[in-house]
Amino acid sequence: MQDQITPDDAFGGPDAGDGAYALDTVAIDAILESVEAGDQSRLIELLAPLHSADIADVLEQISGAEREALLGLWGTEFDGDVLSELDENLRADLIETLPADVMSSALKDLESDDVVDLVEDLEQLQQTRVLDALEQADRVVVEQSLQYPEESAGRLMQRELVMAPAHWTVGDAIDHLRSENDLPYRFYVVVIVDPKMQPIGKVALSDLMSSPRDTMLATIMDEHFHVIPVTQTQEDVAYAFNQYHMVSAPVVDEEGRLVGVITIDDAMLVLDEEAEEDLRLLNGVGDESLTDSVLDTTRQRFPWLGVNLITAVLASVVISQFSDTIEAIVALAVLMPIVASMGGNAGTQTLTVAVRALATKDLTASNAMRVIRREVMVGLLNGLVFAVIIGVVGVVWFGSAMLGVVLGLAMIANLLIAGMAGILIPITLTKLKIDPALASGAFVTTVTDVVGFFAFLGLAAVMLT
Amino acid sequence: MQDQITPDDAFGGPDAGDGAYALDTVAIDAILESVEAGDQSRLIELLAPLHSADIADVLEQISGAEREALLGLWGTEFDGDVLSELDENLRADLIETLPADVMSSALKDLESDDVVDLVEDLEQLQQTRVLDALEQADRVVVEQSLQYPEESAGRLMQRELVMAPAHWTVGDAIDHLRSENDLPYRFYVVVIVDPKMQPIGKVALSDLMSSPRDTMLATIMDEHFHVIPVTQTQEDVAYAFNQYHMVSAPVVDEEGRLVGVITIDDAMLVLDEEAEEDLRLLNGVGDESLTDSVLDTTRQRFPWLGVNLITAVLASVVISQFSDTIEAIVALAVLMPIVASMGGNAGTQTLTVAVRALATKDLTASNAMRVIRREVMVGLLNGLVFAVIIGVVGVVWFGSAMLGVVLGLAMIANLLIAGMAGILIPITLTKLKIDPALASGAFVTTVTDVVGFFAFLGLAAVMLT
Prior knowledge:
MgtE_N_sf (chains A, B); CBS_dom_sf (chains A, B); MgtE N-terminal fold; 7% strand; metal ion binding (chains A, B); metal-binding (chains A, B); Tetracycline Repressor, domain 2; homodimer; three-stranded mixed beta sheet; CBS-domain; magnesium ion transmembrane transporter activity (chains A, B); globular; 3 domains
């Protein structure tokens, strides 16, 4: 069976393109109808063709009540892979509510690394619940992986892998693979190890296939490859896969012994996570998901708004210092938000570029000075341009040349500072080993607000009164 | 040789961890010294162990003058893969400046899809320059790919692939692979096609390897797989790979005939691009890179700041309607930015979640209503909480209970509106087939600024004067 993804239909419903997208509203409605009708065979028939990731999406998109009903009707038919596709918070809920028999039958469908990925975010009590549902052998493997730090290569890797000594021939390897009946579900390379179990090369399956049986693996193995320390952060792992277009890489322990392998599909998920995290943090959102309750979401967002309130009050304190000036010239109150807001935007622009460049390691000690200089120049240039524009606006609007000059000067000052803050703050945080995406935003806007109001009102106080 | 990536060193320099990271400042300094010394053999020796992606990073991180000197010294030794690793703008510059002989020798190193990826962003004149440097055969392939729309599967796919009829045995396939001497550089599956060249299944190499020679491919082929229409957007392709954990997928033309294959490493790059694009657009940055000149960068950012200026002036117009009120109670001027800024932040929070959820198709017609309701409730709740906090601040600071009440009510109104705008605007834009990340930011902040100032000053005018 062939599916064509045409995600335009995601917002389609009845009018949706060719409706081929596995998950258009029509499909979901049909599923919900079968649930309401309590028609299990129909439900199973509808879910059968769907990928577990799509089924997870269904569960995420329907209401809590509908979800409960669906799971109840699905029963032990429940597909374990769906669990690993669900977003964390919903997954935790499910694991709490799923009956023991459903759980254990569900877990049988999973690879060890999926189970790890599944239990690591759970609280102690739920973890034990899952681990108990596992067979002894699997449980041991999972518990071993859980020994490694969170978000480390050790958690990401799969332990099932294919290895061979360098003196084997292609024929030996193929015969081994044919005889071996417990092969990993998916593998792309044979890792070549020395007697001490240290990886010394790898042979891509495509090379293995296309070489004569009597070829020695040593002669076709790729000796230039990356090994990943088991303790390396998943972020660095994803970076390596992306930077070097790796498809799979051996993971080694402190003694350099082969302990597992990480494949590109794992890295791809991490890369996606990390990019999304930068986006969220930069815009003041935590690790929330659409299925979170109103209360959870409110609690999640509160701290970010709290920080913003403090910086906003700080800006107000600055303004309050110039109450008399404002009282004398009320036009200042009208115009002052412009300078601050422009600074905030310019600062965010620089900050965004800087944070991404730091994440992708395009911004390093080698070019930091040049980039800083560039951002300052850009801030100055845009400052000059917008100084003229806003200056004219000020003059035309309030008919005071001097007011226009004040506006222009304040604009230059603030965009210049915005550029500096936007680049210096994330670099400094990185040097302090703090995630620049996390805190930079608040710092930068504080700077641009304070400077914006102070420059504008201060200049006005001096030059207009 | 084994490299361990320890990107902490990216900001390391001499004090950098174990310095194993291919690109610590030490390495770059050494390279630059060899360039200054004009010592070509030393330069080549230093670059040899580096991955082309790392060499590209070096070129991106050194100054323009240093770059020129390095390339001059490197000469025809120049590695073509570096071209495809460079960021677009710098790549364009290079292609303009590289001598013809260097170009043609460089291009020989590249796969057809890399060449396509390389020329598609170039202007007509440069394109011809590159195409002329190609051998006839390659040129035809590249020109064919360029027939497909930009950012389509047709541009992304590689045409080199391995296919076989269903009636072949594993042995036939392996013998074919061994005899075939023009195999793709990297492949993971054998695509099974019918006589009309339409894909009817695929066999992972790992399954091919582990099956006896006499097994019919028909019996081990996976018939449940995604085919990608050659005209599908690369964004949708990346989504499919990420959603369904695909490793490679056949690409078909209008008649469903196999025309190429896309592999996960291509999809990974696109996914990274698309996530970065969302981040940039949401924060008002275009497709710029660290190597852009000051002037280019200034020009790039100008339009975003221009739009922001318009919305800021709009807010000022609202404020100006209440000049008399402000003149009477200058405290209003001091406090009014708080309400606006809180609204802006709350709106951005919702917007960020919405834009990502739309990109990952977690927000669809099926759950839109529920999500909208949730965002409104969250806005209301946080509004109530911060209304109390800011109300108290107002009372304590200016000793007017009424002022506190006004502040609180305005806060509730603005956070409520912020929640609505943050979710409704991106959904509407999506329905209008406009990228929500592109325009939402400006709309949302305009709404929150206008509503923020209007609600606060309007209420003040009514209740305080």
